[in-house]
Write a structure and sequence with these properties.
This protein is mainly α. The protein has one domain: Farnesyl Diphosphate Synthase. 76% of the residues lie in helices and 1% in strands. It contains 16 helices and two strands. It has a two-stranded antiparallel ribbon. Strand 1 and strand 2 form a beta hairpin. The longest helix has 28 residues. The protein is globular.
Amino acid sequence: MHTIPYLQSLISTEIEQEIIRINNTKPENLYNPVGYALSMGGKRLRPVMVLLASNLFSEEIEKTFPVAKAIEVFHNFTLLHDDIMDKAEMRRNQPSVYKKYNENVAILSGDAMSIMGYNYLLLCDSPELPAMIRLFSQTALEVCEGQQYDMDFETRMDVTIPEYLNMIRLKTAVLLACSLKIGALAAEAPQRTADQLYDFGLNLGIAFQLQDDLLDVYADQDKFGKKIGGDITSNKKTFLLLKALELADDHSKTVMLDWISKTEFDAAEKIEVIKKIYNNLEIRKITEVCIDEYYQSALNVWKEIEMNEEKKNELLYLAQMIMNRDH
């Protein structure tokens, strides 16, 4: 059983080689932005999850490299388009694709990436390939549904916390869950175990996104890789904002709603005012409790998985790695 750091180094090497190939593919104006998007780094968490899940059932993880690349390319496609929709100028401390090139280029290159994901997946030699394609397609559609809900919420002031949790389940968590299950399927894992890995990843993914929301307000900007307070300035209906609106007294709620309604404002001032309200309401602590609930749900699924303890411990290490982060 390989360690997660080793799997990270393996897939990073694979992706770096793929970037070279992509950057030498024509037309350059279509593929160079794809190479740029993939070269921006990150922990390669999702492709590592694919390889880890595969390695739980097979030592021949090289057969799963195409699946890991499919997941990573698809994930970066979603980030590329998300940055356009969110008008996010930075990604991992570098200009986002649409800022480096332009929106039209970024849209088309993103479209190409979504299709490339399927091409990588089809390179996997597994009898479970039809089931893998069904899972990949369903996940891709759910990610789009989650993004649409996220955009719908921008113009709604009656978003509930259950609605928000469903949105992040679709937008973020299902891809983490898919990464584990699709890797397990590629290695012909028992269906019950593959389903358990999906549930484990789903709960972990919701905890992951809640933590991301928290980091957007409270992280060190240099480590986080994008501007702190972006969710506040763009009026994102995060768990933090929804819980603050729920718990605030009339005065604080009026202040928040007033800032939300402004079309012109000083971003630093808005972040300072909203963050102060969050601090007064102990929103950070409340969010951390919610994160821990989903994390514990993931661990409860982990306990039920019938598997060699050494292998199971790599899954536990993965969960700890995801949750013990500051960026």
